[in-house]
User: Fold these one by one.
Assistant:
Number 1:
Amino acid sequence: MFMKRPLAIAAIVAAMIYPGIASGQETIKVGNTMPYSGPGSAYSEIGKVMKAYFDKVNDEGGIKGRKIEFLSYDDGYSPPRTVEQARRLIERDKVLLLAGTFGTPHNLAIHRYVNMRKVPHLFIGSTGNAWNDPKNFPWTVGWQPNAHIEGKVYGSFLAEHHPNEKIAILMQNDEYGRSFIAGIEEGLGDKVSNIVSRATYEATDPTIDNQIINLHKTGAGVLINLSTPKFTAQAIRKVADLNWHVVHIVPTAAASASQVMQPAGIENSQGIITAAYLKDPTDPRWKDEKGMVDFRAFMAKYAPQANAKSVFSVIGYSMAQATTYVLQQAADDLTRDNVMKVATNLQGVELPLLLPGLHLENKPDDVAPIKSLQLTRFEGETWAAFDPAKQ
Amino acid sequence: MEFFFSQVLSGIASGTIYACLALAVVMIYQAIHHLNFAQGELAVFSTYLAWQMLEAGLPYWIVLLLVVLLSFGLGWFLQMVVMRPFQNAPMLSNIVVFIALFTIFNSLTGFIWGHDIKTFPSPFGFGPLVENLGISRHQAAMMAISAIILTILWAFFRFTRIGLAMRGAVSNPVSSGLVGVNVMAITALGWGMASAIGAVSGLLVAPVVFLEPNMMLSILIYAFAGAVVGGLTSPGGAVLGGFIVGIVESLVSTYVPVIGAELKLPIALTLIIVVLLFQPAGLFGRRDIQRV
């Protein structure tokens, strides 16, 4: 009880000072949770850039004259706090929708709640497999190709081009790491017995050297490294220290040239393979292309403190663009129902930083907006297109 | 056998990391008789200061010296300004302040320098010390530097009057004050030394695990375990304790299949509990005797 009264007073005071906000008609409130602190904080670049992009939209007149108010709260990369913050966004801030909420276990934690409250839960930052289930969760629309699709890309690549190599897997011991496994096995098909060893680590471990040493001893020729950026960087360096010449695959979520490969050492990262759906800002192929030039100009003006070379910035930029697109299309009737109608009927929506050939495309019974990935390989200082057949 | 050997070496390698910070934990325990939860975050803060100076182009050894001095000053300042009002407060209040400092420094570091991971250079290089041994030059240097700090600490407590005064000030502040020891200055000195040692450990750990604001989060737990296993009053014991924790963790997670890598952190915590149950002062610690 004693908690409620100050809140009520604050609300009344706020209503007197800001009558416009209290009536809820002036701004469009978009809610978001992000690990600004805690072990996943490297990802918070996404939230900062989303915020910057909505600033840009507002500077250019907003959505039919209405400004976007982007409320992005810190969950410390801890699912219980994601729940707390999602409640705050929905019950107290009364956001129209959630966009780009980050993390697999974190979105799982709020999945049922936001669907129960019928709040659009769009373009979430997760490779999890649970986001394309419109029958049970009609208010959730995912973003990148899920881990199952990504795992399958790696599995079939290995089955076809490295059919005789033993495979070692390093994975983070949570839903993020596990979500790739079924896809990898499906892609490998009858070569699934090539997997000789699987080592796990906890997100709280200081190092993973011990796991890499153990995997090295199995004599595997392929390492599938299902880790998050800091550990990916550690693993790349340890593999080089051990002089282990291995076909090294890292997930797209940990494939940032500036955040992972540079810290781990460019020379140690040569030949690492990943699958991508976005253009990497360090890739010379896109250097003079309009989408990338616009992106760099935007970053310099609106997010000078964020890293313009990081793929996380590209993710935040693209997520915010997708959200803006949905708001613009739904602008005449900004209800939650109408937002969902737009967000589940995306037809060939072009985003400037999606790889050529990819666009946002979904329908009400298959809501995943991005459905394929392209293999890329680290060469020199950047990711380069890679055609496994021409090796 | 070779595999076993490499597991022990990998344990020693992580043990070195824990041992470095365990030294700082013991130092602060010697000065205030509490565990300082903010120890790791202070070390991270110092490491970021060093990173900033290195970015500005200062040579490594100058930076090391400057950061040790700055961290000493920071520790001194914290005791004199933040901790001083709590000197007669109950232990719980102190612990709350430590936790507050922990959060403040963790967030401050993230706020100032961002959360992306940064490379931190090592003047010793990462090549193997001896071919095929599995210990890098940097790790060997970490051990050597820990040994040097250890020797300095041992000599400080054993041979200097200030060291003796510090031991007196913590075990009996009132009497020490009466015989002319400036308890406040001595405690501040302890904070300063602990922060300085923490800074060195941060500079040594960062090249291995990469620099980011949460770098010391779990290392601190292992360092606590190391310090408790070895004995909170014994710098040498703490270093050895750090190695024991590292080796036990590596061997148990490899050879006990039920445990595996999932239960590595609980191993450290179990060690703390077991040692406290059977040998409360740690393997090498001095038993606290209180006159009643």
Note: The interface with chain B takes residues 36-39, 41-42, 44-45, 173, 199-202, 204-207, 209-211, 213-214, 217, 229-230, 233-234, 237, 241, 258-260, 262-263, 305, 307, 310 of chain A (CB under 8 Å).
Number 2:
Amino acid sequence: MYVAVKGGEKAIDAAHAWLAEERRGPEDVAELSVDQIKEQLKLAVNRVMAEGSLYDPDLAALAIKQARGDMIEAIFLIRAYRTTLPRFGGSEPVDTDAMACDRRVSATFKDAPGGQVLGPTFDYTHRLLDFKLAADGETPKAAERAEEPAPKPHIMSFLDREDLIQPEPEGADTPPDLTREPLELPAARALRLQSLTRGDEGFVLGMAYSTQRGYARNHAFVAELRIGTCAVEMDIPELGFAIEIGEVELTECETVNQFQGSKTQPPQFTRGYGLVFGMSERKAISMALVDRALRWKELGEDNVGAPAQDEEFVLYHADNVQATGFLEHIKLPHYVDFQSELELIRKLRREAMDRVPNQEAAE
Amino acid sequence: MTDYNFAYLDEQTKRMIRRAILKGLAVPGYQVPFASREMPMPYGWGTGGVQVSAAVMTARDVFKVIDQGADDTTNAVSIRRFFERTAGVATTEATSAASVIQTRHRIPEEPLSEDQILVYQVPIPEPLRFLEPSEVETRKMHSLEDYGLMHVKLYEDISAHGAIATAYAYPVKVEGRYVMDPSPIPKFDNPKMEMSAIQLFGAGREQRIYALPPYTQVVSLDFDDYPFEASKADHACGLCGATESYLDELIVDDAGNRMFMCSDTDYCEGRRRAGHVGAQGVPLEQEGAA
């Protein structure tokens, strides 16, 4: 005698209650506040904002708390919230030339107008565990210096003046919005960049790394990497002019890449571009390399069959919310399909077995 | 949930999805690109089906969700609750009482009627995807009606295995034009797709919607000498004794003994209520005592 199993509803409720308890952890440890996450796990917050495509440090911190530190889960929470928000319109293009830079480095010029600023970087730290932090995280105040008022023009613009770098044609006025229209291929560069900036950091990094190792190598130099805040302006139709509605922290990376030229055209360097919310320079550099690799067609290069050149491959697989959802769905019940496969394989085996003895008998 | 619109999606998004659905109904079997939204459940969990259900749902609808044919599978429970919460619609487990049925991997055993909509959750809408990975290429193949690759695949199955080795998501041709993925339903369900109800297919992650209007011709691909065969386990349901329904196989003890029971739980319960008892079952009224 068999009684049909039921109880999905009860199991779900119990699992959610357990999850909430696990998230909180032991009660003798103080609860983590959203402010603490926002201020002390800022790079995690930045990643969630970048890949969640929503610039809101408070919500990103809340998502990280709710997701128990699982970054992709936190990004997913933000995306699912963002998608319910109305879209009022588009801002004016942010003027990264006028960025208030916390960091600005160039790998191509030792010095440039506006100077180089290392900023709060891990670059030259020794990766030794700081056991002092385990006991006490208080640090002395870092020395401060007044910001130099000098403008910080893009370093690429100096190459531009000499015609050494390939000019960038003006794009369409309003780029398509990946989150409001289905991705259709071939994708224009604006759409590719949109996809890359919200793509999974690990995936974009891996793709970029593959170009460095020879799969569509594009010899990138970081002409400039700048991190800082930019004003966001929006044109208000009722006012008839643009007003500042806030500011965002951005990481921008411009790469100068191998030159192209022909018998009729003198050689010029080419560009790759990365722009990411927050302080996310690994992502911004990766993005610039992959952007450059994806431009093979417009720059008249050969398709060498490298993954990073294949826009369909890159754009369709860069989104970690899509990827993780589809990947993890295979743990959902599939017993109907598996059952049909079971029957098929039994049938095929039965037929094959029937054939084998016959053959033996014949021999 | 007062912060959210009826059935979660905002009206602009619903309008966009309805347009895609109408286009899909006008060109049966054609995959219509649509701007799929992030939903509060993961891609692969039925986001396409949920968006389609949300777009067609009205406050008067009665909603049913099945996964693997069953109403009480965890994900079916989760989706049903989602619409109870965001739309406040009545829900049911009875196939005949539902006006919108969202399904994953099955078509209910009970024939559907003209006033019902069946919404499928679709993981990979492109029937040619595993033969040709590029979307650009497969769209071209559909527009040129170039389905030779699919026939070669089916032929190769026969030469390797003596039969077409596809048991679920078995490709169909719609009204003699588009080759369509029926979603991963067992091929047992394929013949049911010529039905009275509207069938809508939503693939969220892949951003595609396609549709079958009522009474559309849906032919499972085959060869004259290897005709399509809708197969199921050659057993009767252990609980209700049905011999015509699709069965799940359960391993019931350490010795590996098997039992078969209807995958469609509502169908099975209906039969048991009507007094049918299978070989391993008990009459329904005694089950609570067991």
Note: Residues 335-362 of chain A form the longest helix (28 residues).
